[in-house]
Amino acid sequence: MANAGRSGAVSLLLNNRLAAAGVALLALIVAVALLAPVLPLADPNATAPADRLMRPFSPDHLLGTDALGRDILARLVWGTRVSLMVGISATAIAAMVGSAIGLVAGFVGGRIDGLLMRGIDMVMAFPYILLALAIVAVLGPGLLNALYAIAVVNVPFFARNVRGMALGLSRREFVDAARLSGQSGPEVLFAEVLPNVMPVIVVTMSTTVGWMILETAGLSFLGLGAQPPQADLGSMLGEGRKVLFNAPHVSVVPGLMIFVLVMSINLVGDGVRDVLDPRLKSGALARPSARTRVERADAPVATTPAAVLELKGLRTLFGLGGREVAAVRDVDLLIGEGECLGLVGESGSGKSVTAMSIMGLVPSPPGRIGGGAAFFRGRDLFALSDGEIRRMRGSAVAHVFQDPLSTLHPLFTIGDQLIEAIRAHRPLRRRTARQEAADLLALVRIPNPRLRLEAYPHELSGGMRQRVAIAMALANDADLVVADEPTTALDVTVQAEVLTLLNRLRQEKNAAVLFITHDFGVVSALCDRVAVMYAGEIVETGRTEAVLAAPAHPYTRRLVDCVPVLGEPERRLDAIEGRPPPPGALPKGCAFAPRCPSVAPVCREAPVAVRELAAGRTARCLFPLVGAGHV
Amino acid sequence: MIAYVAKRLLAAVPVLFGLTIIVFLIMAMIPGDPATAILGSYATPENVERLNRQLGLDRSLVEQYLVWITNLFHGDFGRSYALNRPVIDEVMERLSATLLLAGTALVLASVLGLLAGVVSAVRQYGWTDRIVTFLVLVGISMPAFWLGLLLILLFAVTWRLFPASGMVAIYGGGGPLDILRHLVLPAVTLAVVATGVIARLTRTAMLEVLRQDYIRTARAKGLRERRVIFRHAFVAALVAVVPVIGIQAGFVLGGAVYVETVFQWPGIGSMLVNAIATRDILLVQGGVLVVAAAYVLFNLAADVVQTLLDPRLR
C-alpha cells in the first residue's frame, strides 16, 4: 500500500487513539468524582486561617490551600463532582425538553411545527450566553438557576436536530403502517419514532455536554452560579481570582481541571462523530493531490513517437480499504494526428480512469499510476515534472468533462473562467484575452457572446454550459482533446447539436480527440477508430466501420446489437445480462467469460492475450467472431 | 444588491420584534413585586400601589408591552436605579467598548481560523495538519475566563508586556496606542474559541470543495496549484464558512461577558454582571436587547457577504 494510504490509516488510528485517551481521562475523572466520599481527602470546607495560601506540594496539602486555608485537592475533587453533576443534569434537561419539542414539531407538522420552530429561531437569535444571563437575572444567582439557564439556551440544538430527523421519519412507510394499524399519535411517536431519533439525541448530547459544563462553570465564575459554601470548579476559580497575584495556583488549578474535563469530553465527542460519519471512515474526505501519483513497476519506451498519444501497458491502481486494485490493466492505445478515437464501455469499465490517467487527473489518494506509460508525441508524460505537466494541461491536452454544471466553477462568470484558461498559458492582457474569450463563445455558436461573458454557469442551459466547456478546451489550440462523456448529461436533442459542433470544430482545428462514451451510436457518428473496454482491459480495437460491420469480441457484438438509431434514449447497455466483475474480484481467465454466450472451458483457465486479427484490428478473445480472413 | 440588502434588513425587523417580546416576557416573569423590590420591604401598601400605577404594572401584559416598546422607540429604556441615570446612556457608552473588543476578536479569529483551516486541509494528515488539529481541540476546550487569567499571569505579571486591566473608557484616555495595548490580551482571549471553531469548519469545507469536479477542471486548465487552492477552492469554501463566522459573532459577544469581567473592560458584559448582582433589571433588559440586536446585525452582514460571494443566492 502506498504512502498516502498508509498515512491516512495512521491518522485515523491516531484519531482513535485520541478518542481512547479521552475516554480513559474522562473515566478517571468521573471515577474520582464518584468516589469522593470514600477517598482519603481532607474536609473540603474545613477552614484553617493559619494555613492559608500554602503552595502546592506542601506537606499535607498536595495542591496547596486557598485563601481560607482549605485543602485545594479536596475542594477540587468535590468541585469536579458538582460541576459534572450540574453539566450532566443540564444536558439531560435540555435533551428532554428539546427532543420533546423537536419530536412534536417534526411529527405533527403544520402550524404547530411552524409556531414551535419560530420560537426556537427567536431563542437562537440571542447570543448564547447572554440569554442565560438574562434568565439568571430573573431567577436570581444560584447553582440550580444557572443549571436551568444553561439547559434552556441549549434546548434549540436538540429541538432542531430532532425535528429534522422526526420530520423525515414521519413520512416513512413503517410509521404510516403503525398509524394505519390503529395506534394513536403518541403511541406511534414513542414506539416508532423515538427509538429512531435516539442516535441523534445521543450525538447532540455528546457535543453539547462539554459546553454546558463550561458555561455553568462560567456563570459560577461570574458569581452567578454556585454560592458559598457550595463550590463548583467555576466558583473556585472565581474566588481564586481574588488572590491571583500572590497565589496563582488557587485559580490556575481549578481552571486546569475544567479545561482537562472539557477537552476529554470533546475528544470522546470527536471520536463518536468520526465513527458515525461514514465519509471519514471510507477516506472519501481525503484531499486529492494536484497530480496522480506515479509509482511504476515498469516504464516502456515509445514505439510510435509520431503519434499524438500512445498508451503502453497503462496500469492504474486504486487503494480500497487497505487493499489496492487495478481499475485499468495493460491498456495500449494509439491516436494519430487529428484522429478521433472512441473509447467505449459500460460504466465501471475503466474508460474514464484511462482517460484521466493521461494528464494525471486521477485523484491521489486513492489512485496511482502503477505501470506503463503515456507518450505525447513520444514524450513520457509520467516522467515529466509537475510543472511540465501543468504547462501541458489545457494547452497541449485539453479536457471536456461530463456534467457541465458541476465542472464549471459556480462562483465565477464564464468570462472569468475562459480568460483564466487563456491566460494560464499565454501572457495576454486582460482585454485581449477577453476579446478572445468572446470569439471562442462565438466559435461554439453561443449568441451574444460579449453579453454571455458576464453570465454565471447556473444562468445557462445544460447545452450552453457544455458549449462553454468545449470553448474552454479549444482556448489554446490543444493537439489532443480528451472528452469524457461530454453529451451524457444533456437532453437528447441537445446531444446531437453538441456532437455536431464538436465534430466540426475538431476538423477545423485539426485536433485529435479521445472520445469516451458508452454509446456506440455516438461512436459511429464521430470516431475514426474505436477501442472497446471491459473490466479495465481493451478487448477490441479497429476502424469504426470495420468493428461496427463485424465485431470480433462477443462483448462488442452485444454492444453493437444494442445500438439504436442515434439520438434515442439510453438504457441499451442494460440489454446485456449480468454485470461486469468488480475490479477487486476478477475471474482467473477471460473477464467476460461469466457473461459470454459462446464461453468455452478454456476461456476460464488463464488470462486471454490480445490477438491481432488484421492490420489495425485486435481482439482479446480465444474465439473471435470473425477470422483473420473476414476483416 | 441594494434591493437585496434592503430586503434582508426588512426581514430582520420581525426578528428584532421577537427579541423584544422574549426579553419583555423574561423580565415579566420576575418573581415578586418590582415596586416592593424598589421601595424595599418596609414600604407602605399605598406607596407600593402608587408606584405600581406609576410603572404601569396594574395594566394587562399586552398593554404593558405596548407602552414599553413605544418608549423603546423613543430611546427610553427606563432608568437604572443603581446608577441613577438613563439606561440608554449607560448602554450606549459601554456598547462601543464591547463592539471594539468583540469586533477585534472576531476579525482575529476569522483571519487565523481561515488560515489555519486552509493550511490544515492542504496538508491533510501531514504534521502541520496534526498540530493544527490538536491546537484547535485545545482552543475549543479552553475556558475563556481561565485563559484570561493565565495570560494576565504571563504577559502582565511575569513579563510585564501588556496591562492586565485599567482600560477606562474608549474616548479620552491615552489615545489609540494605549487602547491597542489594553486591547491585545482581552481580544486574544476572546478570539481563541472562535478561532478553533472557524479553523475546524474551514478545514472540512476545504476538503469537501477540493473533491469537486470544478477543482479538477481548474487543474485540467493548467492553473498553478496556488491559484487552484486560494482562488477556486478557498472562495467556494468561504461560502460555507461565512455564516458560521456570523454565528460565532454571537459566541464572541456572549464570551465578552467573561473576558470583560476578567480584564475589567468597560463594556456591556461587565455591566450586565454587575447589574445582575445588584438586580438592576432595567439595565439588564437594555443591555441584553442592544447586544442581541447587534448580533442580528452581525448575522445580517454575514448573509450579505455570503450573497456577494455566491451568485446563485442572488
Can you describe what's shown?
The complex is a heterodimer of chains A (631) and B (314). With 631 residues, chain A is α/β, with parallel strands linked by helices. Chain A has four domains: 10-34 and 75-280, Orthogonal Bundle (MetI-like fold); 285-393, P-loop containing nucleotide triphosphate hydrolases (Rossmann fold, 3-Layer(aba) Sandwich); 395-527, Rossmann fold (3-Layer(aba) Sandwich); 534-630, no CATH class. Chain A has helices spanning 3-34, 72-108, 110-124, 128-139, 143-169, 173-180, 185-221, 233-240, 249-276, 278-281, 351-358, 386-392, 404-407, 414-423, 430-443, 449-452, 462-473, 492-509, 520-526, 544-549, 554-561; strands spanning 293-294, 309-320, 323-335, 340-344, 367-376, 379-380, 397-400, 480-484, 512-517, 529-534, 537-543, 611-614, 617-619. In chain A, the strands form two sheets. Chain A has an eight-stranded mixed β-sheet, with helices on both faces. In chain A, strands 1, 2, 3, 5 and 6 form a five-stranded mixed β-sheet that branches. In chain A, helix 14 packs across helix 15 and helix 17 (462-473) packs parallel to helix 18. The two termini of chain A are 44 Å apart. Chain B contains twelve helices and two strands. In chain B, helix 7 (144-158) crosses helix 8 (175-210) and helix 9 (213-220) packs across helix 10 (225-263). Chain B is mostly helical and 314 residues long. In chain B, strand 1 (79-80) and strand 2 form a beta hairpin. Chain B has two domains: 2-73, no CATH class; 87-313, MetI-like fold (Orthogonal Bundle), CATH 1.10.3720. Chain B has helices spanning 2-28, 34-39, 45-55, 61-73, 87-122, 127-140, 144-158, 175-210, 213-220, 225-263, 268-277, 281-309; strands at 79-80, 85-86. Chains A and B meet through helix 1, helix 3, helix 4, helix 7 and helix 9 of A and helix 1, helix 6, helix 7, helix 8 and helix 9 of B.
